[in-house]
Structure formats: C-alpha cells, structure tokens
C-alpha cells in the first residue's frame, strides 16, 4: 500500500471518528432539551388548568372593573371637594425660600371630560 493511500485511510478514519464524537455530543444536548421541553409542557398544562377556573369568573371581574372605572371621576371630584374644604392653609406653612410648585394650584379637568359640573 502506498503512502498516499495510507494517509487517505487515516484521514477518513479520523473524519468518521470526529463525526461520531460530534453526533454523540449533539445527541446528548438534544436529549437534555427534550427533557426540558417535557417539563415545560407539564407546566403549561398546569397553567391551563388553573386558568380554566378563573375563566368562568372573568365576566364578573370585568363588570366590577367597569363599575369602579365609571365611579372614579365622581370619587375624584368628591376628594377634591374635601381638600378644598379643609382648614389647612398651605401659605401659612411655607417657609421663606422653600420650593413652591411652578404650576400653582392644580385644577382637574376630569369631571368636565365626563360631563359632570361640580357646584
């Protein structure tokens, strides 16, 4: 057997050995990924089971949220009325040189947006 044929056989054997090692490593990694995906599938199934219980009451939750969202402008206006009626005078307690808001007194337009005009 000539030297060139011997080197070709050795080269082919090394190539096949390298491919076998590569496939062994990739197979191990794919096995690990398959195990993790199976765990994820179980978790997704548990989440789906838990969500089915919530799904039946979701309409009631949304209804309650709509009622609360509709009442917020009125509650906000009542709170501003309480603050306006307070006896605390901010100007008496402002020390000289302290920070004062540049915008002055805050005024809400939320009530006007929903058509409510406070007295």
Summarize the structure.
By secondary structure, this protein is an all-alpha fold. The protein has helices at residues 3-84, 90-93, 110-114. The protein has 3 helices and no strands.
Describe this structure in words.
- By secondary structure, the protein is mostly helical.
- It has a domain at 8-84 and 110-114.
- The chain contains three helices and no strands.
- The protein has helices at 3-84, 90-93, 110-114.
- The longest helix is centred in the middle third of the chain and has 82 residues, at 3-84.
- 0% of the residues are buried.
- Residues in helices, as a percent range: over 70%
Extended strand count: 0
Poorly predicted runs:
none
How would you describe the shape? elongated
Strand-and-helix sequence, N→C? HHH
Mean pLDDT: 81
Q: What's the quaternary structure here?
A: single chain
**Through-space gap between termini:** 110 Å
Radius of gyration: 37 Å
* Structural category: mainly alpha
What does the main sheet amount to?
Answer: none
Beta-sheet strand percentage? under 5%
Question: Count the helices. How many?
Answer: 3
Which helices and strands, and how do they pair?
Layout: H1 3-84, H2 90-93, H3 110-114
Top keywords for this entry?
single chain; 119 residues; mainly alpha; 3 helices; elongated
């Amino acid at each position: 057997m000539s030297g060139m044929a011997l080197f070709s056989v050795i080269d082919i054997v090394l190539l096949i050995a390298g491919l076998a090692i590569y496939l062994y490593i990739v197979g191990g990694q794919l096995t690990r990924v398959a195990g993790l995906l199976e765990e994820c599938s179980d978790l997704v199934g548990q989440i789906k089971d838990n969500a089915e219980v919530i799904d039946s009451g979701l309409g009631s939750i949304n209804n309650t949220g709509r009622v609360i969202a509709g009442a917020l402008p009125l509650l906000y206006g009542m709170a501003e009325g309480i603050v306006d009626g307070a006896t605390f005078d901010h100007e008496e307690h402002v020390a000289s040189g302290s920070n004062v808001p540049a915008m002055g007194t805050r005024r809400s337009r939320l009530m006007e947006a929903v058509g409510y005009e406070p007295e």
